[in-house]
Amino acid sequence: MSPNDYRMLSARFGRRDGHKLAVYEAEGGYRALRKVLGGMSPAQVREEVKAAGLRGRGGAGFPAGVKWGFVPEGADQVYFFVNADESEPGTFKDRYLLDYDPHQTIEGTIISCYAVRASLCFVYIRGEFGWLIDRVQKAVDEAYAAGYLGRDILGSGYDLEMIVHKGAGAYICGEETGLINSVTGTKGQPSIKPPFPAVSGFLGKPTIVNNVETVASVPFIVNEGAAAYRAFGTEKSPGTKLFSVSGPVKRPGVYEIPLGLPFREFFNDWLGGMTDGEKLKAVIVGGSSVPVLSAGEIMNCNLDYESLGQAGTMLGSGGMIVIPESSDMVELIQVLMHFYFDESCGQCTPCREGTGWLHRIVKRLRGGEGTAEDLDLLEHVCNGMMGLTICPLADAAVMPMRSFLAGFRPEFEALIQETASAGPQSRWPRGEREA
Amino acid sequence: MSKQLDAKAPWTPATGTRARIDEALRRYPTKASAIMPCIWAIQDELGHVPPAGVDLLVAELGVTRARVHEVLSFYTMFRTEPQADHVLQVCHNISCHILGARPLIAHLEKRLGVRLGETTPDGRFALEGVECLGACGHGPCLQLGKHLYEHLTPEKADALLDSLRRGQVPRADTDRELED
Ligand SMILES: Cc1cc2nc3c(=O)[nH]c(=O)nc-3n(C[C@H](O)[C@H](O)[C@H](O)COP(=O)(O)O)c2cc1C
Ligand code: SF4
Ligand code: FES
Questions:
Q1: CATH code, residues A330-422
Q2: What is the CATH number of domain A240-324?
Q3: What angle do helix axes B35-46 and B65-74 make, rounded to 10 degrees?
């Protein structure tokens, strides 16, 4: 199989002109929207997407059509949010979608909004993507001018407003309730569920939040039908998925793969293996928040929800971080614990304090002041965090922490041994930063 | 980038800023929900949100001063103090770390004579460590305003600094988006 055989999402990636409306239209763009507005009911669209088995691509993998079905029938006002906050370390696929092909996402969004009868939608883009926000705004302006947005779209009587919203730097605003709260004009802190946003979200109204890639998959499903979509992937993981690959491989980047592809094949044939002189040590397959797998474990996995679940990790956002033999795992987990500590919104004590403790203990280990008890202490702190908070950010810190400890314990122990024999010493070379 | 305002002098937003605030107020479903685009409008003009900007937000949005500060302080990209002319934000998260962010930061610290998190005494450069910038496969990377520089090496970083010192912002890997 070669990467070019499976391009329903990435057909225009890497092209200079793919973001232009004229190009998108010439290649069949907005055909799905015409089909929907020309004679499909919102319920029919929901059914088609449900039948396709499209699972949310933001991380949790919840079926999109099912989520849409939670919106109460006859709601007077429904809101839709496209989650383009893309802040999960290792993930940069939504950026490619919006960069090379913004109209595909816009078309998918309009159809998704129609399916839940939303009249206002926000495309929430992380603030750091300044250049990308300009590009998407331009594309939205084009779509308005062409009559795909605004009042009475294509003469169907359906009205939809689309606002491109610029975030301002907060990982937690990627969590759906944090995202919604951020736009209401308060701090972007998550709220407790239930109620789920689909029932009571933005301004107390039913609200659907979907990832960019999720909505971008919708035009294909509408055009070709659920069966054509299911021709890709596996029974439980239908369709294709974007993986963004970083680390010292020969060909890093964003790939669209049919779900179920063996990792071994993807790694060797598509990525070209490791760069010269590097050896594969471990892979974080779905963004920094999922458990790490050793080279031996990942080599036996297929890239789909069920196979990765069986191996003890998750497909997540598809942010694949390839770790070479030359990396120090304790150093990497320090970097990650610093991140979660920094990004905890502080509402829940187990998360606010727990991420701080995890970071401080790892830092202490690396500072040459660790003791054998510290590894149990890390476990103990993890146990006090997992599943006990408003949103899953605490879990997102625990999963890498626990898996690094479980899979690479000898590296932690060697560090402690070294400390015991050599005494305290700084592990960041002089003059470099202290994370 | 940032303008220092005389705290006592009245400030009226520039025409473009005013237009952006009015548009946000027209399009967002409640006045309070328009707070982020309004803050961006002010910050894009002044480089930060000074007390006069907070006054304007309170008056326009009908929210409390405490609410405005709550939002301003929650997000890392909103600023209430004037910033250096060039804020260099280097990603220090995992993928960039694997690809050499740490030596890159050490190099920039040496060249600028400041530590991460500090500003040069002349106020021209600030060096910040930031979390994942969504360029993990293109790292290490550095953001400067709207520009994102990717695949950085110490040599490329030097060329960037030299160019900024000459008053030129060099073309970034993502500037294609701004051009066409
Ligand atoms: C801490 C945290 C950060 C998240 N960040 C993102 C993000 O950047 N983008 C995203 O699409 N989903 C993110 N999510 C998942 C969202 O909460 C939500 O499940 C998703 O946007 C739903 O869309 P989907 O069903 O289409 O996947 C995050 C979740 C958590 C707990
Ligand atoms: S788990 Fe952490 S990030 Fe999530 S709401 Fe609680 S404190 Fe905030
Ligand atoms: S880790 Fe540096 S851009 Fe993602």
A1: 1.20.1440.230
A2: 3.10.20.600
A3: 70
Q: Tell me which residue of B69, B66, B58, B53 sits closest to B32, measured CA to CA.
A: B58
Best residue among A172, A211, A391 to mutate for probing ligand 1's pocket (most ligand atoms within 8 Å of CB) is A211
Residue span(s) of chain A under CATH 3.40.50.11540 come to 3-230
- The reply to whether CATH 3.40.190.10 applies to domain B86-179 is no
Map out the domains of chain B as residue ranges.
Answer: 15-74, 86-179
Ligand nearest to the CA of B101: 3
Give A253's contacts in chain B (Cβ within 8 Å).
137
**Alpha-helix residue ranges (DSSP H) falling in chain B:** 15-27, 35-46, 51-61, 65-74, 94-98, 101-112, 154-165, 176-179
ipTM: 0.95
Whether the model clears a pTM of 0.90, i.e. scores above it, the answer is: yes
Q: State whether B178 and A131 contact (CB < 8 Å).
A: yes
How confident is the model over B99-156, as pLDDT tens digits? 999 999 999 999 999 999 999 999 999 999 999 999 999 999 999 988 999 999 999 9
Which CATH number is A3-230 given? 3.40.50.11540
Of B30, B35, B132, B138, which to mutate for an interface test with A (greatest number of A Cβ within 10 Å)? B132
